[in-house]
Amino acid sequence: MLLGPLLLLTVALIVVTPLLGTGLFAASFVVIIIIVIFVVIFYGGALFARYVRRLWLMADQFAAESIGKESLLSVLQKIDAMNLPEEKRLKRRKNYLVANVYDSNRPSITERIQNLLVKSVTSS
Fold first, then answer.
1. 19, 54, 56, 90: which one has the fewest Cβ atoms less than 10 Å from its Cβ?
2. Residue 59 binned pLDDT confidence (cut-offs 50, 70, 90)
3. Which residues of 7-27 are buried (b: 16+ CB within 10 A; e: fewer)?
4. Where are the beta strands (DSSP E) in the chain?
């Protein structure tokens, strides 16, 4: 799944290194900079996706406090019972890092239901 970004990194290294000339220090410096940028972008995206998912779950908590936990749970369970194609895809997802951009930013309905149930057990 990480083959695409690694291939892109390899191509970038192959293209940039000959442009630097024969200076070993300059070439190694550019290679290190490219690797650092790659890691920062990839890890930053994963952290951002985790933060957005946490916001979704916090929004569910606020909604449960305002309209009632039972009402929100029944709505989420009805949505879960509809077997929507996008929810099926979110349920199959095993890793947020290899999901597409839109899927990695939001939890599945099942995760949202579990979050409400866990929060109600721990707050009681």
1. 19
2. very high
3. eebeebeeeeeeeeeeeeeeb
4. none
